[in-house]
Write a structure and sequence with these properties.
This protein is α+β, with helices and mostly antiparallel strands. The protein is built from six helices and four strands. It has two domains: 50 residues, no CATH class; 72 residues, no CATH class.
Length: 133
Amino acid sequence: MVFVNLRMIEALIDELAYDKINIAQALTRAKILSFKIANKIFQEWLKSELEGYENIEGLPTYRKIYCIPVATIADRLGRTKTIPINLKDWDEQRQLLSTCDITSSIPTLEENYIKIRNCYYGFPSKFDTEITR
């Protein structure tokens, strides 16, 4: 049994190293391995990574990403410009607006990255009225 698990791990590492599979596929294969070794914590982590996290409580720190909030503004002629938002007077909101809690599943993140090569998140709705002031 141990020999089979080691062989599965080695195959998984090789496939990742040589770009034969994407991260979502690797996590799915790791899920099979997690059941073979009966590791409940590993199974739960894989489930969250593959299906997305339900809430931000317990969200791993590697899924909390620093970001720079920006706004796209338009003039009367319809020309647009994207500018960073100055948060120096918004101490309370700074932390909420400059950190993205990524709860999406790995397959969704991979798909979005392949499509647009970037990450965009809207403002939390409670800030809409403050921003328009």
